[in-house]
Amino acid sequence: MASPARTASRATATASSPPPDPVTGVRTVTTQHLYDATGSEARTITMRLVTASGPDSQCETSHSFTLEPCPCPLTVNVALIEDPRDSATDCLPPGDYLAAASTTPSDANTVFVWSLDGTPAPDQHDAAVRAALRAQREWAGTPAAERAEALHEVAARMRARTDELAELMTREGGKPLVENRDEVGWTASAFDFYAELARSAEGRVIPPVESSQLALVLKEPLGLVACIVPWNYPLLLLAWKLAPVLAAGNAALCKPSELTPLSTLALAPCLDHLPAGLVALLAGGGDVGERLVDDERVDGIAFTGSVATGTRIAERAARRIARVNLELGGKDPFIVCADVAAEIEIAARGGAWAAFLNAGQVCTSAERFYVDRAVYDDFLSAFVDHTRGLKVGDPMDPATDVGPMVSAAQRAKVVRQVEAAVAAGAQVLVGGDGAGHARGHYFAPTVVTGAPGETDLLREETFGPVAPIVPVAGLDEAIELANASPYGLGANVYTRDLETAIRCARELRAGTVWINDPLTDNDAGPFGGMKRSGVGRELGQEGLDAFQETKHVHIETKLEVKDWWYPYGGGDAPPHGA
Ligand code: NAD
User: Fold this and answer.
1) What interhelical angle do 177-199 and 236-247 show, nearest 10?
2) Residue 556 is a catalytic residue
3) Please, what's the b/e burial string for 176-210 (b: 16 or more CB within 10 A of its CB; e: otherwise)?
């Protein structure tokens, strides 16, 4: 493929896990910094070292280091620190930890501490945007077949790095290794899908208003797109944006979550065959994202995250009428109908997976179970038994079903919701604690009954491994309760009855309705939410359309004065539509 000269610094990085230093216990992973920057000035970066030492305690200390002037690309060392915590205080002792990563969510003997607060600096943001503008012009002119080849190459590189990426994601985010290996595969698949879809992307020819004319509808790239992502699927949710953004001929400015920056930064070697500046990875906090949202040169913003942040982004983007695609939170219902009495074990196991996958930290986690009274007791008993058998533990262990949650704050929110429900009369049948782990952000898969409908556990997003189960009189009540929510991301139904399935598919107000197969994504099927769960769709044809402009081109082949021009007072009326 055409590869423009590399005038700017490149987004490249490596991340591996060398053995720890036998004396200090410190493992150092070298990554190259990922945003386009000149690297010509020394900069002091302040890091926040955070030690998460258990469900309730967290220590923080600030730490600065200076990056010397260096040739591009900047290099930032990232240390994986083998648990150097002081056993008395459970804090990191003072020390010269060169760099940091996000806190490890598990109680494995590794602490990741990372936060590059306030980076990249405004000048680096600016350098990245200018490089992206240059690269995008060239990329948009690259034939679709060549762009497709480059995207297939991204996918191949990801697959080749599956083990490395999955391990890093597990250590950083706490999702079980097996789920992260899956995520790498799905991520690669999104690049393959959009590589091919964009090869056959179409505008259309429409009937002209006069026979001497040709009228076309063209699809063009937006230009620059900011891709702002959360921590729960740090690669996949980036790929659902980045792959169509690039396939459509745009450049991308990507902002990983501050909780999982390394996972996203480690993708850089999979992208470094692309033109310089076409993809920038800008690690940092909300301020880095906000700078992208406010930048007039950024044509579109693709965001996945919380409703609160999405609302803020929508408000700011509206001030300059920038395009937004928002994938936000959910409170997905899971309906179990009376007709699956014979398969209640299957429905219970499907429900447990839908509720506890990634420790319930999936935007489409099943968070409200509405079960027909006719099968309620059997469903509950099968669900509780299955939940008791799940293995909660070290996410690096292939036998682990449920790992730790990502952070102390996320866990604390779940604890608050469960405690409030219990205070309001709910019962915890299983779980509700740290599953025997004194350290790490573990929260055992939890089954709750008797939660009043107005508690947050049944109204607000939980984003943790909790399944509140509610008996209902029948399908009418189940659909009514399911729809009585400000969210509308996904919905699940277990039924054998075709009429019930079709009714649920039509009446449930959700972007995806899964019948008898919870949470399965399909690259070709649009994904997104209704109501407060978002605006726009990712994946499928819709996911490509989101990053394209539509242009109407009107060509007149005859150069002649039209009857309907000045002076008025005679001649024909304009053709329809003029
Ligand atoms: P979050 O909203 O806190 O952060 C998401 C991203 O936005 C992060 O990269 C963050 O740094 C950035 N950000 C924060 N403030 C910003 C600002 N003012 N301007 C621009 N960017 C800013 O969300 P989170 O805690 O990382 O993720 C969890 C949430 O994401 C949950 O609510 C979950 O439901 C949602 N989610 C939705 C989907 C979906 O497809 N609908 C998928 C996964 C997660």
Assistant:
1) 10
2) no
3) bbbbbbebbeebbbbbbbbbebbbebeeeeeebee
Does residue 196 carry a catalytic annotation? no
Angstrom distance (rounded) from CA 295 to CA 129: 9
- The CB of 324 under 6 Å from ligand 1? The reply is no
Residue 33: both structure tokens together? 């910094």
Cα separation, 54 vs 39, in Å, equals 39
Question: For residue 192, what are its two tokens?
Answer: 């393959």
Q: Is 329 in the pocket of ligand 1 (CB under 6 A)?
A: yes
Ligand 1 atom 26 nearest Cα: 230
Tokens read off for 194: 């959009």
The 10s digit of each residue's pLDDT in 411-444 is 999 999 999 999 999 999 999 999 998 767 889 9
Q: How far is the CA of 310 from the centre of ligand 1 (A)?
A: 7
Between 528 and 270, the more confident residue is: 528
Report which ligand 1 atom has the smallest distance to the Cα of 363: 34
Please report the DSSP string for 172-188 in residue order: HH---HHHHHHHHHHHH
Catalytic residue check, 538: yes
Cα of 193 vs centre of ligand 1, distance in Å, is: 25
- Please give the helix or strand (H or E) that residue 218 lies within, else none: strand 213-221
* Residue 454 DSSP one-character state: T
Q: What is the pTM of this model?
A: 0.84
Are the C-beta atoms of 532 and 307 separated by less than 8 Å?
A: yes
* Band (121; pLDDT cuts 50, 70, 90): low
Q: Dig out the tokens for 388 from the structure.
A: 């008791």
**Catalytic annotation, pick one of 363, 367, 461, 504:** 363
User: What residue's CA is closest to ligand 1, atom 35?
Assistant: 305
**Alpha-carbon span 32 to 148, nearest angstrom:** 27
